[in-house]
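Aim 2, interim progress: modelling of the pyridoxal-5'-phosphate-bound target.
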Amino acid sequence: MPLHIYLPHISPQGLEKVEIALAWDEGVKLNPRLKAARRALEIEGESSFLVLGNAKMLETQGRRIIHLEIGEPDFTTPANIREAAIRALKEGETHYTPTPGMLELRRAIAEKTAQDFGVEVCFENVSVTLGSKEAIFAALASIVEEGDEVIYPNPGYQAYASGVMFFGGKPVPVRLREEDEFRMTPDEVNRLVSDRTKAIIINSPQNPTGAVLSRDDVKGIVEIAKDAGAYVISDEIYRYIIYDGLKHYSPLQFDENLENTIVVDGFSKYYAMTGWRLGYVITPEHLTAPLQLVLNLVTACPSSFIQIGGLEALRNGSNAVREMVEQYAIRRGVVIEEVSKMSGVHMVRPRGAFYGFLNVKEIIGRAGINSLKLASILLEKYGVAVLHGSAMGSFGEGYVRISYANSVENIRNGLRIMSKAFNEIAGF
Ligand SMILES: Cc1ncc(COP(=O)(O)O)c(C=O)c1O
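Predicted structure of the complex, ligand included:
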């Protein structure tokens, strides 16, 4: 018998899952010992990529789709960063680097972190990774043991819970609530801490809600972690994309001896470098060597010329970041305006990142469907790709996420089509 796994998939019928045969042919007689490990079969893939795949398939059939599903800047990486990498290649920067990355890049990351947060960060504890996704994986790989509990935001970035389970841990969701503007509050975290808590994952500004943690939130969570003897893994990948004059806080600022904090960050979002796959992790000193052993096992080192691009971003990229954030702020304004005109839909004002998390409970309630089916109808019938909220965890049901890392024209058109669609679907 071939093995099967199930992937979330939006089909014309709105099916939640499709069966994917792992054996290429039902007729192939496999030795029963030839089978994939359960840990691989149970990984929950990132749904936005699956939705993107479905949308692209429709485009190949000649349909015009407005893409509001994928969390990636529409901007091309700033020219000086691209040129630095090209120059590096031309100059023969084609070799392995040390596992945690080039010394200059690690120093530059440590300096920038120190500058931004006013804390001393030793460059030896900075490890460069292939995107922040690898940083999350390596962080979890180096701390999670069988049965350990890891508290994480739900709705939230999918890789947290999947990563914890991959290493035999137990993901413990914190339900983010609209009445708290989706902030992960110390009170909620405190309720879930146990003697098995190994880590608390925070993400501010947050995907998918745009929530930004306050100084007291971050400080409070660090204190809880310290009392519990747990780590705080802080995913700060959207930290410069923040609005309304709010400030980003890192647990680094409240963890005096830098014992509990693991910072995950990357170049993908604010430098518009998603395709480069460049990120980093800052660890407490006692974790640096184990984490670097994991990185050594998995990737040996990040690509050399890509790291030179990253160095240029850190040295001469802040103006470009400011300009892109100005554009995101304008687009956020368009989202707030258009959503406020929709019937039966509301949205907590996003304070950071580039997502709107639309409460569509009234629409799906009236239509007797779930958020996945709604997203499927929006894509199939109306040509707008969005992410169903349940893709971001069980507490995301009742919502859809849109990414406004897109042109004002596309955002406005997409949201107006959605508004019309919601009226038709809900029968207003
Ligand atoms: C919260 C969060 N963390 C991490 C990532 C991974 O980003 P990358 O691996 O491109 O650095 C994403 C990507 O969408 C994200 O939203």
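DSSP finds 14 helices and 15 strands in the chain. The pocket of pyridoxal-5'-phosphate is lined by residues 71, 131-133, 157, 203, 207, 235, 237, 266, 268, 274, 279 (CB under 6 Å).
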